[in-house]
Amino acid sequence: MNLLNRVGGPLAIVLLLSACGGGSPDISVQQAALPVPAGVDDALWQEMQSELQRVRIENGRERSVSMAPRELGNRVSQIGTEDSGDGGVNVGWYYRNIGDYDLNGQVTISDLTPVGVGFQATAADPAWFSKGAGDGDANGEVNIADITPIGVHFGNAVTGYIVEHSTTPQYLGSYVPVAEVLFSEGSSIPGKVVAEITLPTETRQIYFEVKIAGLSPADSYGIRPFYEFDGKRELGIASYETKPPGQSEGWPMSGGNAQHTGLSDTYFSANAQLLANGGGLITAFSTQPAFDDDGNYYMGTADGRLLKFSANGSQLWETELGWRVNALEFTGTEFGVLAATDKGLSFVDSAGQILHQEALGRVLSRPVVLFEDASFRNQGGVTAAGRLWSVHLIKGSGVELAFAQDLGGPTPGNAVTSGLRIFTVVKGVGGADDTVVSTDFAGNDEQVHETAADIHSALRVGLDNRIWANIAGLRLQSWDPDGSASDMVTPSAGVFGAFDTDKQENRLWISREEGGGWSLMEWDTGFNIEKNQQPVGQPVVSLIDTGSHLAVALEDGKLASYDDALIERFTVDLKGGLTPISEAQLDFAAQVGSEGRVTVLQVPVFSGINNASGDIVLSAGDSLNEARLNIASIDRSAQILSNLLSQVEADLLNPPLIQKLGGPLDGPGVVATSSVLTKIPLSPTTNRTRVGITFRINLPPLDAPRLTDSLRAASSGIGGCGVAMYEDDGKLAWDEFFDDEEIGATSFSFRRLLMNASNLVANTHRVICLTEATGAELWSRELDSPGAAVPVADDDAQAYVITESGRLHKLNETGQDVWVENHPAPSTGLVLYGDNIYYGTTGDLVAVAISDGSLVFSESLPDGLDATPAISSSGLLMCVTTAGDLLSLDLAGVDHTPQLLFDGEGRAEAQPVCDGSGLVAWLTTDGIAHCADLGGNLLWEIDTYSTARAELSVGMDGTLYVLDELGRIAQLGQ
Fold first, then answer.
1. DSSP state for residue 644 in the 8-state scheme
2. Backbone CA torsion sign across 318, 320, 321, 323
3. Which of 206, 225, 105 is nearest to 161 (CA)?
4. N-to-C CA span, the chain
5. Shortest CA distance to 876 belongs to which of 829, 935, 818, 824?
6. What CA–CA distances, in Å, run from 522 to 397, 502, 538, 592?
7. How far is CA 937 from CA 348, 443, 444, 883, 912, in A?
8. How far apart are the C-alpha atoms of 736 and 717, rounded to whole Å?
9. Which ranges of 497-633 does DSSP label H, i.e. alpha helix?
10. Residue 421's closest CA among 409, 436, 406?
């Protein structure tokens, strides 16, 4: 049947409007009149109706208005084509309208019935095919949460579909309508389904198919829903992608969808936990070494492995512990190596076998010995969350937990012992002061010794057994072993940060800053006076007394050695200056090897320095010059986390974690600077995965300015930049070079790559559009100043670009200006939603009309924005300010005043993400991931341990991925 230019008849429209849309009575009246379904308890039915009313009001869906589905999740799930056999094409697709459980074409109160009838049924139920119709979140159980999709999408209605066609799909504006199909013409499965479409299992569906004469199955097709009433038609969201029914691809990073909305049609968990932490591209060592009696040494990694090396640096074995390793200690042959991890404690023997594990929580520092004799050893410590614990190592009998108790606040530092007490620093919560706390070795007799606004976490024990703490950088305070207060040291210029106790005399080594100069100072604790000082010229990050000399880690990446008179002996450049020492991760109680070897750990380099001569005696790992999320340059070859290509979670912690790329990224001095993962329809039924990577040759290390939408640009400097496109098997599809131009992070918009570029020689700037297929330049447009955010694009292939001067351009599909308007310069990326462009400035949230570029509104945000706003499933604009506050703006109403949802802490630079159920997740620069509902209720906070610049992405199963600049991944989910 040729459905070209067919117009829908009135009968189907009347049927639709009988249950929704214009002219229907008040919703509360309809809801009250809805009969209780047979077999459903009256109390449950009332609870369900109340929940629906709550969700509808919360999401602005309380009015009795019908509309065409426009949310991302309501794109049709898959488009299939086949040759009709007579010179035409059959086009088929599945119905998609979230919340329409009874499959009548609209989301109304009647969709409560399938939830009530199937309530508490699970996928294991033999009658799941019928009872599972109300499983809206597809988690295999019908429960009260399945009412949320009804309320969020309440009023969405489909009268029919428009089929669109194009032979030039790189231009979205080339799609034209070729057919229409009414909703009433759909058929319930089982029915005829074209071969290329994969049938779902154990679910009900409605299938649509239309025959179109004179067109080819190899062409490109789109499906767009519409709603029609009283002669007026409203269009819904079109789908030009193909994907299996009920699955979402999510997006690999912020800006992954062409509009940069931060909205996913995937539902992530309201009760998340940390699933995995690691998956780095390299051997990112995360501990100081532990040496055994034979000179072998052990190293822990950020992705949860324990490695053993011989004295000459060759690897002997590795064991998977599953959690980031933070500290190591060799306890002897029976109990082997004690590893402190993000999970707790692991004991591993000399052959790499796990002897015992104790789940205590995140343990950052090496446990301290509380007591030891010939048959018994008692070790204790604290977790990052503030749990004081002790374990017994009983020779011949194994390991047992002695006690574990909560100290009432986080303890991110170390624990030390003196006399018969264990001391630690408990950080204040909610603005409260920090405290120095001690207990006896049984965890009893808790005493508070000091309360102050900022007590540094690291404690030190002197030769006379006094405990020392740095109080707010102003003074050092000591306590005797019984916990009573002792001497106080107050240097004239304060304490810069690092200090240590002498291992041979009663004195302290203190680093300090005075008048812009930095020095080391010797303090005699017997006479409580300053005795000696030595200028060092730069900040001291850490200092360690090795017993006879001082090892001093300096900010520029060098390690200096001083004798006990503070005379410099030598200076070693650890990494050739590639990474500032501020990137280093020194242990809280750094270890000195049996041969006087000082160990320094940087990310991801581990080196050993002979403290007598300064020679580097062993080295492992390689320098990470520059990294961008899942792309990095290591050993002069770019590599991709296969997890992000295949979406197979199991690959995250199992080798191979990396995939080597050839082409231009395999050359010396080439560094990847940004990436975008794309799903490209080869045909209406077949997808191809490609990864577009921007790169730079001879990139200056660690000197990259950050683009404001959480993506990273190339560093300043003259040289070559380019873009390379790789297939999912790692083979190079094409590459393009741009001499003397900086290429910004790439935005993908349906078979086109958009990017900003600045020519450093000619001092010119432009936006470039390349085809995904070959890399050929479709067009470029000169700009008056550098692009300030990654471009965004709409469904008509029109691009929106803003410069550092605040000039906002709307460009058509050939790169010509539709309009140009001046607005405030942005501090965030752009978000395209509905009829407007939204972005943040240092003090405001700005909305600009895409029709003519006029200012729609500007709302004051006292703390300003660094993080690009995101759009919730109900159309609220979600913002996280520089102060960490979560705000929402109602875009539908007249009043756009920001509403405070959550009073948070911690700066956010990465875009929040929202899901289809009304949850929002965001990440602050302290590595904490947060999740709240649209009422501002905080659902969870999780420490991802990714304190470098990082951002969130959503996987196809609702797993949240946290990706940092070192290529490491943390997973959050149920």
1. H
2. positive
3. 225
4. 48
5. 935
6. 47, 10, 17, 21
7. 42, 35, 36, 18, 16
8. 19
9. none
10. 436
Which helix (H) or strand (E) element contains residue 90?
Answer: strand 88-94
Contact call for residues 416 and 460 (beta carbons, < 8 A): yes
DSSP lists the bridge partners of residue 914 as 263, 920
d(CA 441, CA 435): 19
Q: Which neighbouring-strand residues pair with 88?
A: 213
The two three-digit tokens of residue 412, written as one number:
């991110």
Task: Check residue 330 and give left, alpha or beta (phi > 0: left; psi -120 to 50: alpha).
Answer: beta
In this structure, what token pair is assigned to residue 572?
A: 């070693």
At 71, list the tokens. 């949310």
Task: Dump pLDDT digits (tens) for 631-667.
Answer: 222 222 222 322 232 322 223 333 333 345 667 766 6
| Cis omega (within 30 of 0) for bond into 656 | yes
pLDDT tens figures, 743-792: 887 887 667 889 999 887 788 999 999 988 788 898 999 999 999 998 99
Handedness of CA 539, 544, 550, 553 (dihedral sign): negative
Q: How many H-runs (helices) and E-runs (strands) does the chain carry?
A: 7, 72
> Whose CA is closest to 70, among 92, 96, 94?
96
Q: Given strand 658-660, what is the order of strands in its sheet?
A: 627-628, 631-634, 637-641, 658-660
Give the pairing of strands 899-902 and 913-914: unpaired
CA distance 415 to 433: 19
pTM: 0.49
Distances (CA, A) of 264 to 99, 666, 839: 16, 34, 19
Distance CA 44, CA 650 (A): 39
Task: Report helix, strand or coil for 468.
Answer: strand
Query: How many whole angstroms separate alpha carbon 191 and alpha carbon 152?
Result: 31
Is there a contact between 559 and 551 (Cβ–Cβ < 8 Å)? yes
- Which residues does 380 contact at the CB level (< 8 Å), separation at least 6? 367, 368, 370, 388, 389, 390, 391, 402, 415, 417, 422, 441
User: Where is 770: in which H helix or E strand?
Assistant: strand 764-771
Measured between alpha carbons, how far is 136 from 148 in angstroms, rounded to an integer? 8
Side-chain-side CA neighbours of 859 within 13 Å: the count stands at 19
Q: What is the H or E stretch that residue 129 is in? A: helix 128-131
E-assigned strand segments in 851-927:
855-860, 870-871, 876-880, 886-890, 899-902, 913-914, 919-923
What the block records as the tokens of 446 is 């808790």
Which residues lie closer than 8 Å to 923 by C-beta, 6 or more apart? 908, 910, 929, 930, 944, 950, 951, 952, 962
Rounded Cα–Cα distance for residues 182 and 163 (Å) = 11
User: DSSP letter at 238?
Assistant: -
The C-alpha angle 948, 949, 953, rounded to 5 degrees, equals: 120
Which pLDDT band, with edges at 50, 70 and 90, does 283 fall under?
very low
Of 340, 276, 358, 348, the residue nearest 308 (C-alpha): 348
